[in-house]
User: Fold these one by one.
Assistant:
Number 1:
Amino acid sequence: MTLAPERPVTTPAAPARGTRLVDHFEHGLDAPICLTWELTYACNLACVHCLSSSGRRDPRELSTQECFALIEEFEAMKVFYVNIGGGEPTVRPDFWEIVDHAVAHHVGVKFSTNGFRITPERAERIAATDYVDVQVSLDGATPEVNDRVRGAGTYDAALRALANLRDAGMRDTKLSVVCTRENIPQLDRFQEIADEYGAMLRLTRLRPAGRGADVWQELHPLPEQQRELYDWLVAHGEGVLTGDSFFHLAAYGDALPGLNLCGAGRVVCLVDPVGDVYACPFAIHDRFLAGNVCGEGFAPVWRDAPLFRELRSPQTGGACTRCSAYDACRGGCMAAKFFTGLPLDGPDPECVKGNAAGSLAAVADGTRPAPSQDHSHRGPVRNAPVPVTIARRPPASPCDESPVGPARDALTGG
Amino acid sequence: MLEQSWELNGSVAIRPEPFGALLYDFTTRRLTFLKDRRLVAVVEGLRDAPTVGDALDAAGVPDGERAGFDAALRRLADQRMITRRTA
C-alpha cells in the first residue's frame, strides 16, 4: 500500500515563497494524491501480516454500479490514480470491468496482487492498457522466507506472474516487498529478482495493522536492520520505490526521497470494500473512520469529515518535540503508534533514537487496541494454509483461550 | 525559452490546489507541484500565448521576477511536463 506519490516528488515551484510544500500538505489538499481503494476483503490467501485482516468477502461490498459511480466522482475531483488492493482484488468477478471503467474515466490504476490470477492472457491485456500499473507482492526472496508469511506456493505464483508480465512486454511492473526481520538480509537478492523481470523494486514498511498486529513483535526489523535498510535505501536512491513508507528512518540523517510526512487524511486515505473511508491504509479501525461514500459520496467525507479536519489541524509533537530529529521524522507513523498502544503524540514504536523503547515495554498485553473488524478466513485456505510458525499474539487472559479459564476481570467476564 | 512557444504536455493533467497546483504525467507517472498560483496561470496560459514571454505578461509576472519563472519552466521542460509547441 502506498502512502504517498510513488515517483519521488520533485518541486520545481519557482520563485521562493518561504513556505515548504510539506507545510501546505499538512493542511490537506482538495483531493487526495494517494487514494487506496480496497475493492474486497475476499482473498485466496491468508498472509500472517495482512493489514486489512482479509479473507472473507463482506456481504455489504460495493456493487459494480456503486464502484463505477465512485470512479466518476474521483474523475470529477481529479484524483489522478487509485491504488487498488484488498484482499485480492482480482477475485472480484467484475475486477477487470472496474479497471476498464477507471481507465476510460482518466483515473489511473495501480493494483496490488499476489499474482495467482495474472495469467499470460491477463498479462497481455494489462500490458496493452495505458494507465494500469501492477504491484506483485513478494515478502521473501526465497520460497522459505516468503511462504512462511504468505503461504505455500505463493513464491512460485508471484514469480510466474512476473514472468507473464515481462513476457507480455509490460514495463516497470512493481515487485512489492514488505520489509521484515527475515527478509532484510535479502535486499540485494530482491533487487536481482526485480532486474531479472524488468520490474521496479518497491519496499514498504511492516505495519502492526490488521493481522500484522499479531506478528509485528516477531517480524518487525531489529534496530540494526533498520540502519541496514536505511543505508541500502540511501545507496539506491530513486531507483527503489518506497511509497514514503520509511520517513521514520529520516531521523538517521538525510531524508529519503518522498514527502517525509504522515499523509493520513491530508494527502492519503483509504476507501474500504463497503465504502468506509479511513485516514490511511494502515488504519482500518473505528478510531480512524471518517465516513462512508454511500449517500453523499466521497468528496464531502474527504473535505469535511471531522476526523480529517482534526488531522489537518496543527499537531502537537508531544515528547518528540524535544528531540533533535523531530523535524526529520515528525514523530513517525500514527497507525504504528496506535496499534502498538503508544500515544499518538509520542515517538514511533520503531523510533531510531530508541525513544519508544520505554513506553513500548510499559504497554501491557490487552491494552493495545482490539481490532474493529476481522475478515480472516475461519477455516483452512485452499491455496495455502499458512504454516504459522510465527507466534500469534498471546491471549490477554486464559479465558480468551478457554471459556472456563479465569476471566480478565471479575466484573465483565471473559 | 521566453521567445519560444510551449504548451502543457498532452499526457499531463493539472489540478488546482490552495497552494498552487499538482501536475501528474500519466505516461511517466510523475507528480510535480507548482507552489505559485501565477506559475499555474503561466503554465495554463502557454497554449494560447504566442510565446512564453507573452504567457508571463498575461499572468502579470513583473520583469524582476522573470528569471525565477524562467528557471521553473526550464525544470518543467526537463521533466517533459511542458513541451515545445510545433504548430
Number 2:
Amino acid sequence: MGDRAAGVVADGQVLRGETVKKSLRTIALWAVLLLGGGAVLAQLWTLYGIARTNGLITALSIGQEVTLDKVVNAAPEVRLARAMVLKRLQRYDEALATLNLILDAPDPALQAKIRYNLGNIYLHLAIAKTEAMAINDAMPLVALAKQAYRQALALDSRFWDAKYNLEVAMRLLPEMDKITNEKNSPVNQKSQLWTTVPGFPRGLP
Amino acid sequence: MKKFWTGLLLSLCLSACTDIPNAPVSDFQFLTPRPFGYVNGDEIRHRVILETRNGVQLQRGGLPKRGAINRWLNLNRLAISERKISGGFHYEIDLVYQAFYAPLEVKMLAIPAFDLPLAQGGNVVTQTVPAWHFTLSPLRELSIRKDESGEYMRPDTPPPLLNNGGVLYGLLVAVAVTLSSAVYWAYLYGYLPGLPKRRIFKQAGKKLARCSERQTDEVLSVLHQALNAVNGAPLFRHQLADFYQRHPHYQTASSQLEWFFQASNQYFFAGADTAADTVARCRTLCAFCLDIEQGRR
C-alpha cells in the first residue's frame, strides 16, 4: 500500500515536471517567434535604408539634384558622391572640405577611395596651376596629392589608379633626397630648387 | 705544398663560418621574393628566419621601426613570432615594405641592410640582414600624353554602393528562425494540415460551444468521440489505465476523466439525471484536454 502511494506521488511529480517543461517550452516558443519577427522587421528596415542610400548615391553619380539635408548626415559613400558632384561643378574648396570630413571612414577600402579622389582634386588643381605657370602655388598642391595617393596605397597596395596618378604627381614634382651639410653648397641648393620645380620631363623627341 | 696549405686554411675558415658549435646563431635564412617587376606603390614582403643557441634572445627594440625607412621606402608591417627550441629560440620576422618611387626607366634600388641585435646576459652580438636589390619599372611613358582635359591622369573612382549582403543574410536567418518557430507553433496548436490529431479537442470544443446547457446527450457524445479519436478505438472507463500508459500527458486530467466516465455511465446506462453543471464541466474538461493536446500542459 505504501509502495503504491509512493508510486502515485512519484508519478505526480513527474507529471508536474512535464507540465512545467511544457509551459517553459511554450514561453520559449513565443519568445523565439516574437524575437524572430522583430529581427525580420529590423532587417527589412535596414534593407530599405540601404536601398534609399544607394538610390541617393546613384542619383548623385548621374548628376541629379539632391537636397543638402539628405547629404549632411548621410553615409560616407553619399558624401563622397556629393564631393564628386562638387568637383564636376568646379567647386573645389567645397569638394575638398567634404572629403576631408570623411577621411576617417571606418571601411579601409572606402578610405582608400576617398584619399585617392582627394589626391585627384589636388593633382588636378596643381596641373592647372603649373600650366598657368603659378609654380609656387602648384608645389604644395602636388605635395598634398602625393601624400593622399601614398595614404591610399598604404591602405590598398593594389590600387592601380592610385599608383598611376602618384607617378604623375611624382613626375610633376620629383623628390630629392635630403642633402647633407657637407654637400649643402650653394650650387647644390640651386640644383635642388631647379629639380623640384613642377613640370614633366620632355626628354624624348 | 703551398696550395695544399692554402686550401686547408680556406676549408677550415669556411667550416668555422658555417657551423661553429657555440655561435649564437644556429640558423639564418633570408627569404625574399623575385627581384624584378615592381612598380610604384608595390609592397615587398621579406621573411627572416633565425635560430639562436644558448638562450640568446633577439632584442626587439633594435629592429627597424614601422614608418619611413628613407625617402621612397616605407616599412608598413613588422611581425615577429618567437618560440622556444632546445637551447635557444626560433624567430620568424615578417617585414612588409612599400616602395614609392617613380623612375623614368627601369631602375635598380636596394632595401637597406640592417642588424638584428642579439643578447645573452650582458653580451650583445648582431646578425646582419643584407641589403636586397630589386628593379622598379615606370608605369607611364616618358613623353607626355594628354587628353582633352590636359595632362592624362586616371579618373576619380566612383562612390561605391552600400553592400547589403550581410543584411540579406541576416534577413534570411531571421526569416528561417521565425518560419521554423511558426511552423512548430502551428503544429502544436493544430493548424498544420495532415495532422488531424492535434485538432481533435479543438473541433470538439467548437461543437461544445454550439450546444446548449440542456443538450447533455450531445455534449457527452462529442467528448466520447474526441477521446475515442485520441485512443484510436472506443475508450471505456476500465481501459483508462491502459489509455494513460499510451498517452501519459492525459494523466493530469485523470480525476476529471474519471468523473466524466462516471457521469456518462449514469446518464446513458442507469438513466439517471445528471447534475446541473455537467455540460459546464464537460466544457472545462474539453478545454483542459485541448491544452494537453497543444502541449500547454
Number 3:
Amino acid sequence: MEIPAALEIHDLSACYGDREILRRINMRIERGEIFGLFGQNGAGKTTLIRAICGRLKPRKGTIMISGQAIRHGVVRQIGLVPQEIALYQHLTILENLQVFGRLSGLSAAATKDAIIEVIKHTALADRLHERVEVLSGGWKRRVNIAAAILHRPALLILDEPMVGVDIEARITLQNVILNLRDSGVGILLITHDLQQAETLCTQVGFLHQGVIGPQGAPRALLDLAFDGQHEIIIVSEQPVSATDEAVLRGRGFSPVEGGQCWSVISNSPLQEITEHLEQSGIATKEIRFRKPGLDSLFLRLADQSDTGLRGSRP
Amino acid sequence: MILAMLRVMTLGLLRDRGALVLAFVLPPAIFVIFASIFSGTTSDKLDLKIAIANLSSTPASQRLEEALRKEPAFEVIGALRLNRAEVESLVKQGAADVGLVIRGEIDDTGAAPLEVLVEPSKLMVGSIVSGRVQELVARRLPDLLLSRTAITLKRVVRTFTPEQSARLAAAIEAAALVSEPQAATHAPGLVTTASVGSSESSGATVTYYAGAVAILFLLFASLQSAAILIEERNTGIIDRIAIGPGGSAVVVLGKLMFLTVQGIMQVGLIFIVAQLMYEVDVTRRLDLWMLITVAAALGASGLALAVVTACTTKQQAQTVSTFVVLICSAVGGSMVPRFMMPEFLQTIGRFTPNTWAIEAYYGVFWRQETLSDVIPEIVSLVAMAVVGTACALVVSRRRLRF
C-alpha cells in the first residue's frame, strides 16, 4: 500500500481581505523528505504556514496532510516549530515536554513513552531537569524541536530552526533534523540559510510574491540553471570607482557585499576574466571560484521577477 | 549626551499611548474621583440617604420633619410614615445611610428627642448627621431650641427672684470652676446616636475591608498573571498549541481555571486572617463565602483575560490593567466606602466588580443576608466572567489569523 505524502498542496490561493497573498501554490512533501522553502520577507511563507496549519481558510485549492484534507483533526498530524523559542522558560526540559505532550492530545502514559523516544532523537537526556531559561541557544532550539514531535507528526514545519546558534550547535541540530527525516517524518524547512538548505534538503522551492517558483532537488535545479557555469567572486583592493563599476557590470558582475565584493556566473574561463580585469586596471586582492549554489539561483530567480531585489541577499 | 537620553525617554513616552494615559490621564482621573468624594463630605452637599421615623405627632415634630425633608444635604427615602423598626431595617439593608427617629418633643429635656440610627461601619456618618440636624434646628427652628434652653435654664434657676439671681450667679460661678458642668450632665443632648445590628463598629469595618481588599487583589493578581498570555503569543507557544486538539481555547480556559483557583486561595487567606484576628465569622457561612468567592474569582479572571487578549504588548497590558484596577477600586468602594461618594460616582460604581463583591461579602457577614439577597451580585460577577472569557476566546482565535 502506498504511503500518502506528508503534505500535498494543489492550486492553493489565499487572501487577507482583498489582498491575494498566495497564488496557485502546488507542492508535495513525501515522508522522509526535507523540503526547503525560501523566500524574502513578505513573500508569503508565514501565510503558507498558517494555511497549512488550518488557521487561514484558503480561497481556492486543497491542502492534504497524510492524504487527508485539512480540518481540525488532521492538523494534529502537524508538528510546528516556530522561529521563536516557543517554550516555557521557567520550566525544565522535561516539564516542557510533559506539558506539550499533553497539549498535543497524548495521555500521561503516552507522553511518558513519547518523551523517551524524543530525547533519543534530539539528544536531550543530559539536561532534562534544567530550566529552559539557563540553556544555551542550541539546546533551546533542540528542545523547541522536541516539543513539536512528541505526537509523532506526519509533517514537521521548521521555521528558521537554526537562527542564532553557533556552528557546533548547528551541526547537532542538522543531525537532529536528519534523524527525524530518517524516521519517516516529512519536513518543511523554512530558512534563509541557503547553504544549509543545500546540505539538508532533498527538495527545494522558491516563494516570491505569493507564487512558488521552480521546485526540485537542489542539484538538479542548479544543474538546470547553471549548466557548465561557475561562479567567480572577486574582492577588489579598494571600493571600485564609477568607471570600474561600469567595466564590472559590462562583464556581468554584480555587487555582493558592500562595494568591494563582486560576483559573476559565467562559463568563460577564469583566466580570461582575470586578464580582462587586469587590463581594465581593477586591482583584486582575492579571487574565489566555485560552483553556483542555491543563493546564486535565488538571486537569479529574484532578478527575473523583480530587479529591485538584487540589493538584499537572503 | 544627557539631552539625547532625555529625547529617547520623551519619544518613548509620546509613542506609547498606554504610558501617556498612565502618566497624564490616570492621575487627574483618580484625583477627580477622590476630590468628588472628599469635597462631598466637607461641603454643604452630603448626598446622604436618610430614612425618618416620626413617632411624635406634635406640631413641633411635624415642623422638624418638614425641615429635614427640605434639607438639601439629605435625600429622604422610604414611605412618609415609617416606624422605628422599618427605619432600622432600611439602615441594615444599606438602603439608607442613616436613620433618624423623632421620638419625643424637642422641648422635652427628659431624654434626647432625636435618635440617629447608623451601621457601626458608618459611625462617622452618624456624627455628621447629628451635627447637621442640630445645625438645622438652630437655623430653621430657633424657637424650638430656645424653648428647650429656657426649660433647662428654668430648671436651674427656677424663678428670677433676687435670691435666685444670686443662686444663678453662684451656679454659673460653680459651673465655671468644674470641668464638666452639672447642668450639662443632667440635660441630655438634642440628638443621640445608636448603632443598628452588632455594636462592634470595628467588626463592620473589618468585614467591609476584607471584601474590599479581596476584590482589589483579585483584580491585580488576575491581570498580572494573565499577562503571560501575551508572552505565549509572542513566543509562538500559542501557535504551537493551536494546532493541538484543544486549539487556542485550551490556553484561555486553562488560564481561567488557574486564575480562579489562585483567586480563591488569595481571598481565602484574607478571610482566614479576618477570622483569626478580627473574629469575622467565616466558617459559620462557609457555603455562601465559597459561592461569592468563586464568583468573584471567576469574574476577575474573565475580566483579566478579556483585557489581556485585547492588548498587543505586555507593556500595554500592564498599563491598561493598572488603569482598570485603580478606577474600578476607587469607584467601586475598595478604597473609600461608596456611601461617601456623590450620587453619580455611586451610580458608576454599581457597574464595577468591586461593588458587587463588597456588597455580597458585607451582606452575608454583616447584614446576615441570605443567598437570595446576594444573588444579584453573584449573577453579575458570573456574567462578567462569561462575557470576559467569551471575548478572550474570540479575540485570541482571531489573533491567530494575523
